[in-house]
Amino acid sequence: MRRSIVFCLVTTLAVAGCGVGEKPAATPASGGKVELSFLVFETPNLNAAFWDAAIARASAKVPGVTIKKLVTPNVDRTGYAKQLDASGHLPDILQSVNPAGFAEAGKLAAFTDDELTNFIAPKAGAVDGKIYQLPYNTQVIPVVYYNKDAFAKAGITETPKTYKDLLDVSAKLKAKNITPFVVGGGGADTWADMYPLTGTVATDVYAKTPDFLTQRKDGKVKFADADFTKAAQKVADLAKQGYIDPAGLSRSYADTEQAFRDGKGAMYPMGSWFATSADNNKPGFEIGAFPWPSDDGTPVTPTFTGGGTSVSASAPNVDLAKKWALAFDEDKENNDAFVKLDGSIPAIKGYTPPTDMGPVYQATVAIYQQGMKDNSIVNAFSQETGDGSLPPGLADKSALGVQDLITGKKSAGDFASYLDDQWAKATQ
Amino acid sequence: MTEIQHGTRGEVDPAAPRQSPSHGGSRQRGAAIRRRASARIWPKLGRFGLFALPGLVAYVVFVLIPIGMTGYYSFTNRNPFNPPTKWVGLRNYGDLLGDQEFRQALVNTVIIAVIVTVFANVGGLLIAMLLDRPTKLYVALRGIFFTPVVLSAVVISVIWQAVLTDDGLLNSLLRGLGVDHPPGWLSDPDLALYSIAWIITWQMLGFCVVVYLAGLQGVPRELQEAASIDGAGRLARFRNVTWPMLAPALTINTVMLLITGFKAYDQIQVITNGGPGTGTTSTMAFQVVQTAFNGNHIGYSSAMAAVMLVLVATVSVIVLRLLQRREVTQ
Amino acid sequence: MDDRTHSWLRPLVAVFVGAVFFLPLYLVVVNVFKPGADIVPHPAGLPLPPTLDNISAVLSRPDNLFTFGLINSIAVTALSITILTVLSAMLGHYLARSKRVLAKVAMVTLLCGLMIPVPVILEPITGVLKTLGLMTSLQGLVLVNVGYYVPFGVLLFMGFVRSVPLELEEAAELDGASKLRVFWQVVFPLLRPASASVLIFLGVWIWNDFLTPLILLGPDSGTTVTVGVYRAIGQHQSDFGAVFAFMFLATLPILVFYLALQKNFVKGLTGGAVKG
Prior knowledge:
The complex is a heterotrimer of chains A (428), B (330) and C (276).
Chain A lengths: L1 H15 L17 E7 L7 H14 L3 E7 L5 H10 L6 E3 L41 E4 L2 E5 H6 L9 H13 L19 H12 L5 H6 L8 H15 L12 H9 L5 E4 L3 H7 L6 E5 L9 E6 L2 E3 L6 H13 L1 H11 L2 E2 L12 H16 L2 E3 L14 H14 L4 H16 L1
Parallel strand pairs in A: 1-2, 1-3, 8-11
Antiparallel strand pairs in A: 3-9, 4-8, 4-10, 5-6, 5-7
Helix pairs in contact in A: 2-11, 6-8, 8-14, 8-15, 10-12, 10-13, 14-15
Chain B lengths: L1 H11 L2 H24 L6 H29 L17 H7 L2 H31 L5 H15 L2 H12 L4 H8 L15 H26 L3 H9 L4 H12 L1 H17 L2 H7 L11 H11 L3 H32 L1
Chain C lengths: L1 H4 L3 H24 L3 H4 L13 H7 L5 H33 L3 H13 L4 H15 L5 H24 L4 H9 L4 H12 L1 H17 L2 H7 L7 H12 L3 H36 L1
């Protein structure tokens, strides 16, 4: 008898505890007519407080909307959005989710030209000419960040202008027992190993064939063609000569950044978002920045523009959701916060970043502005969205392939044909 | 817009006709059990048969039906991002034959399962014999060995990642001892799989220790003493007296370790993401999830899952048969 | 004889092996009570003086990731294991006693279910839950747990039921007790050690499961502590103090639960087999 009483107690206790969840983020200014869910991701920079404040600012501008904040379990928000969609719960508004696949399947709402008048690149990331993700910021991928102390120690006075210079610099560093490059990508952060290849693909493939991936889709080119194979070969050679330490392949993204901060390597090819992290939390040495050099020194500036919010086609009120998404991405203070915390370069007309930005950010923006002036902007390989991007899942596969390239398990030729195989599989 | 509706229909359709017959199947089976139960020779089991139903129903609804659905999907090109779903016959299975990555995931899974089963069994037995004393010290040590069993694989993964990365605690220690280039436990493609297997072994070791200890304590003292009076050496005593008595413990441990080995997923997801490189530490479960959720190829991933299920079922039946036969004959 | 001469050897070896084995766990425990800045330079040092900052930071998170997760975890785990213990005891008892072919078939089918990794059938499981209207609900998660873990409960109970003499049941029935009473008041209490094992094992597994609740609960209805650990890793990345504190707190309840039940646990696990 006592047993069944205990049993009942446990059960009622448990039932009473059912359904405890996160409360919707506070949105004081709204009347709360429509509740929309908003999927965000948290990182050390973009923490819960940041998102709550940014959401409140956008909601203040769009009356009638209550936002329910949803947080992804890790930074792979696109993967999580797919899982949610598979279980029939695609959130109404999504932050920085790659629209590939979602857009073609009609799961996202397209933004009209009128809605995009405030954006500098209103066609960036278009799918069949339509925009499904607001092109709210630009990133230069990669920028080569370097340790000025390490360069000085190796007697290097000038940043490399050509690819040969880069190899010379690496040789000098190596001679002083300094690992030239810090490249990471351990665990779930495999994507972090892509940056040298994104650099070489920009200089050796995209500079010549800007629409390489579109042509790949149409079957006009292959990864195994000479240009792309050469780009892969460059990365393989860097590793073979000991300029990239394969040890990095066990480092998570955060550990990789830490390794650069700890002086475990002199150059850190990374997206421009590293700039504010370097400024906000200065390591014990000065950091400089230069663009990834091409063979003959002609400037090539690989960038990605996009990365903003998307709206689900099945949101309870699509128009209102779009209005809210636009308010979120165009808000001056929100962009200031993105700039300060995540080093973004907003692509909103008339936007000027805060004047008190640090030197590494300034150097990074200078690289971008120089690229605009030289007209040397190309896509950043594997980062693209929309038409002319990799099919779903292929960016992950290439990041895994790059690990083989670095450990020497795959030759450049193997790597290129591996990508061709994976492309065929992904699109069958 | 019409396209969208088409798409969702395409997703739902194959599921709908499947579920009703399977439901019907479970009802039929339930009825069969009841009918037979009521006509039993031992009347006392009649109602107990009824008691058996809820558990079976839950199993059928949440395990067998999903397995059936997996089997059905494996003959389609189901992809939620690329509707409509079409019947493709055996094409997915044909593709699997030539799929290098899947073959590697299969081999990796078997390697992990074998390493975990062998090493945790051997290590568990040795440690159990070491701890087979009734004093407080040994009881406390038993608790220490068992703790990892209680921890989540996610927690274990985070801990071991901190220990095994290249600038991790183990390598710092090795460098301190004068090893210039300590191995890349997780970054070297030739080592990473074994590191993963080790982590799982470490977690399961305490389980084996506890089960073997229970087995050892079941060995009657008189038998041991009788054997030593007969002049049997330590090894002979172990072989002839202790070891046969441990047969049931061996069965339990082997089954549990195989289960754990074949299921390996969390550690891969948290620590290596299948790398370093393409598929070096990918397991079957990991490969299925990647294909299903990152590549969206539900049809193809279902074919993988089906192959895996057949394999796992065969192995478990064979192993159980072998071990139980040994228990009976002893 | 050997034991006498080497009496110092066994404890020495045992303590040494135990210490090496425990080292990774030691690293977590000491670093929970250490200020974040001290962890990377002195990972193995003792936390002197110890600080509770990491712990209180987890408890006072503005998003309540830990507190809500804890409540959900307790609800899901308690409900699942209570139902599972009862259902698998009934099913295990039937299968152990029945000599019918159908029961044998059911047994083999259940045993196969033991080795199926959840991820492999998770996609169709979401389909079933959607059909039943139970997706993203705690009830749905509990039911899936019940279906998925029933085979393990059955395996343990079956082994144990065989060691319970049939005469006891028959005697009770001769006294005129109903089947329900026979099972509930005679059989079930005798299975107590096995129940303890089932509660502990399934409690540990369900508490620690991360993929199933991650997918089945979705983001709206909150999450469990183990999913919270996974999320905390992403948020804090190399802030080991915060991650370890979260892990420590998330593990504590299940550890206490295990310690409370451990006496019966080994007996139940091996009782049927080892002693029988």
